[in-house]
Design a protein that fits this description.
The chain has 16 helices and 21 strands. It is α/β, with parallel strands linked by helices and 428 residues long. The strands form four sheets. It has an eight-stranded mixed beta sheet with strand order 9-8-10-11-12-13-14-15, with helices on both faces. The chain starts with a strand and ends in a 6-residue tail after the last helix.
């Protein structure tokens, strides 16, 4: 698997795992990918079915770009031919995971997964995939490049039925953290009952199980340890939230985080609880959490001119919105809330967006709604409705004053971060 410091993926090994057939013209790979645009010399290309097109259509392009081999259901030179490439990927991912001797800690849930994964990885000093590579291809590539360590942290993200079963098969977690349970990806998961069943599968297959109090209240699982703010087996007490930092007490220790908001508190708390369950010394974990660095768009504070912004628009669903509004409600001063579309909420999307508007109104903020439900939201609770981000910028430029706070919340597909890019460089 490793030669001269380089990881190796041999076509014969892939074929032996998958019942595949190796055609002529293959060679040893030193990386793998599922996006033909990311394929270059020495990369194995997994030709997976997609929502719009099948990866098999790009097999020749991958080989022309220098791919070592293509895992495909087609027979051609340079191919490892398999019946179902997506099942082959799971088999390869599982085999790569089995070569890792450390503890695999998996994070799932309806919201807060990436923040919690980053807290765990940085707090425990364990490797983890970058960003939110939380599907089977991303996990397989992570395990391929993973070197031996005491443990690693992976995030498992689902948007369709039975996907959690596939991901837990691939990752075979030794410990699981479930961050939350609520409506998410309803276009693929259908309803809340399905979400709870699918997400909680992570806990049922893991020997060591940890969940937020919010998630645990929707489950009935023996031996489940819980964490929460002022509640649960592992508790954050005396939480103090500000724009620049958050502090709380945990089992006699003071914990400081360089981020505002409920999400980072719960992520840090899950990390401290995991450290206790794993027998790790808390002072070292707390020291590392004080230097936490989250990806952009997750309670990210910026100051543009004389205006404070909180960019929390990497993702949004009703549960993550609730956490954001709970934080916003605690802040003094004049506040502006720019609320965009929450994606993949299915047939009841309007209902959830009107509920979001009512939550937003309770924060005492000036409201700006963007997107397809903006007018209905503004009619429901007041505020301003705009169709585009450019309109939102133009409006806010007129009304925002120095010292104000602007909070951005929407699904990633909205691209609400463009508001920050369009904001005048000299500020208000």
């Amino acid at each position: 698997m490793e030669h001269n410091g380089l990881k190796e993926l041999r076509p014969e090994w892939v074929a032996s795992l998958t019942g595949g057939q190796v055609h002529q013209g293959t060679s040893v790979a030193h990386d793998l990918h599922w996006d033909s645009r990311q394929v270059g010399p020495g990369v194995a290309f997994f030709a997976l079915p997609g929502a719009q097109t099948h990866g098999r259509e790009f097999g020749l392009q991958a080989l022309q770009a220098g791919a070592a081999f293509v895992v495909s259901d087609l027979a051609h030179p340079g191919a490892v031919q398999v019946t179902r490439p997506e099942q082959a990927l799971l088999a390869v991912g599982r085999a790569l995971r089995e070569r890792f001797a450390g503890t695999v800690l998996a994070v799932g849930g309806s919201s807060g997964k990436t923040t919690t994964k980053e807290c765990l990885a940085q707090g425990l000093a364990w490797p983890a995939p970058e960003g939110n590579l939380n599907n089977a291809p991303g996990l397989t590539r992570f395990f391929f490049h993973l070197h031996q360590a005491e443990g690693c942290v992976v995030e498992l993200g689902i948007d369709r039925l039975l996907e959690m079963a596939e991901l837990t098969y691939l990752a075979r977690p030794d410990m699981a953290v479930l961050t939350s349970l609520g409506v998410e990806h309803l276009e693929g998961l259908g309803n809340l009952e399905n979400v709870i069943r699918e997400e909680s599968w992570l806990l049922q297959v893991s020997p060591i199980r940890l969940a937020s109090v919010q998630a645990a209240q929707l489950l009935s699982l023996p031996g489940l340890k819980t964490y929460g703010i002022g509640a649960g087996d592992f508790r954050a007490e005396g939480v103090e939230m500000g724009l620049e930092a958050t502090r709380f007490r945990f089992e006699g220790h003071t914990v400081t985080l360089p981020y505002p908001g409920v999400g980072p508190v719960l992520g840090a708390l899950a990390t401290l609880a995991a450290a206790c369950l794993l027998g790790k010394p808390l002072p070292e974990v707390i020291e590392r959490l004080a230097e936490l660095k989250l990806p952009p768009g997750r309670m990210q504070r910026l100051r543009l001119g004389a205006v404070d912004f909180i960019h929390d628009a990497y993702n949004a669903n009703p549960l993550s919105l609730l956490a954001g509004m709970a934080f916003l409600q605690t802040l003094p001063g004049r506040k502006w809330l720019v609320l965009g579309h929450m994606a993949e909420l299915g047939e009841e999307a309007l209902k959830y967006h009107l509920e979001a508007a009512r939550l937003a109104a309770d924060t005492g903020s000036n409201l700006v709604f963007v997107g397809p439900y903006a007018r209905q939201q503004a009619t429901e609770v007041g505020g301003v409705a705009v169709e585009t981000i450019e309109e939102a910028v133009a409006y806010l430029e007129r009304v925002v004053a120095p010292g104000d706070l602007v909070y951005l919340k929407a699904s990633r597909s909205v691209g609400l971060e463009r508001l920050l890019e369009l904001w005048p460089k000299e500020g208000v």
